């Protein structure tokens, strides 16, 4: 007595195919950040400027600024995905974390030694249809650049922008191979 397998009903087939299609599409639209991988964080407004430690500082709460991309460890960030879904970015050079602090009434970026602070826990918003493009958020504010970018400009956290200003809050987060840590003489040559 041989039994034939139970047939899959057409509505179930459609659901399975739809589910597989959605997985395929979502996997190809974006590349998620991966814990332990190293990234650069570059303004989408001006792709020549990358988030960098001012003067390659190793001081707690030193400023992070935009600087012409130079492929050095001071502009490379290792991502760690936390259990709640937020991300901390540890700078390859200093070993400290991308954070926010208030200076002169503005909320600006800096680096902090303590990754347990909420000021270092970034929410990453994927921008639909744009590969490796994200908004970086803390609470209800987004990491934002000015209309024109110059070396040394410090990003601020601001409310969501719309229209033509929306690009000021878009960031290209690209995976890179970590550059070996600079020695003190190399750092001196870089900042002089």
Q: Would you kindly provide a written description of the structure presented here, covering whatever features stand out?
A:
By secondary structure, this protein is of the alpha+beta class. Helices cover 15% and strands 33% of the residues. Strands 1, 4, 5, 8, 9, 10, 11 and 12 form an 8-stranded antiparallel beta sheet that branches. It has a two-stranded antiparallel ribbon with strand order 2-3. It has a two-stranded antiparallel ribbon with strand order 6-7. Strand 9 (133-138) and strand 10 form a beta hairpin. It is globular and about 75 Å long.
What are the key terms here?
192 residues; alpha+beta; eight-stranded antiparallel beta sheet; 2 helices
Element order: H for helix, E for strand: HEEEEEEEEEEEEH
Kindly estimate the percentage of residues that lie in beta strands according to DSSP. Answer: 25-35%
- Helix/strand/pairing category: alpha+beta
If helices are DSSP runs of H or I spanning 4 or more residues, what is the number of helices? 2
The general outline is: globular
Oligomer: single chain
Radius of gyration: 21 Å
pLDDT < 50 runs, ≥5 residues: 21-31
Task: Return the average pLDDT rounded to an integer.
Answer: 86
Summarize the model shown.
The chain has 192 residues and is α+β, with helices and mostly antiparallel strands.
Task: Lay out the secondary structure.
Blueprint: H1 10-29, E1 38-43, E2 49-53, E3 64-68, E4 77-81, E5 87-91, E6 97-103, E7 106-112, E8 123-126, E9 133-138, E10 141-144, E11 156-158, E12 171-176, H2 184-191
Antiparallel strand pairs: 1-4, 1-12, 2-3, 4-5, 6-7, 8-9, 9-10, 9-12, 10-11
């Amino acid at each position: 007595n041989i039994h034939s397998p139970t047939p899959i009903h057409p509505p179930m087939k459609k659901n399975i195919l739809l589910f597989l299609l959605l997985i395929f599409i979502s996997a190809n639209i974006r590349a998620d950040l991966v814990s332990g991988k190293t990234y650069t964080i570059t303004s989408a407004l001006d792709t020549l400027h990358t988030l960098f430690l001012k003067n390659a500082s190793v001081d707690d709460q030193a400023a992070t600024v935009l600087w012409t991309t130079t492929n050095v460890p001071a502009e490379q960030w290792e991502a760690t995905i936390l259990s709640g879904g937020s991300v901390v970015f540890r700078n390859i050079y200093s070993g400290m974390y991308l954070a926010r602090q208030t200076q002169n009434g503005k909320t600006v970026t800096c680096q902090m030694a303590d990754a347990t602070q909420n000021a270092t826990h970034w929410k990453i918003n994927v921008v639909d249809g744009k590969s490796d493009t994200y908004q970086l958020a803390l609470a209800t504010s987004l990491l934002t650049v000015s209309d024109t970018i110059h070396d040394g400009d410090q990003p601020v956290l601001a409310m969501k922008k719309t229209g033509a200003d929306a690009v000021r809050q878009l960031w290209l987060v690209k995976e890179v191979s970590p550059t070996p840590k600079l020695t003190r003489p190399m750092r001196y040559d870089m900042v002089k």
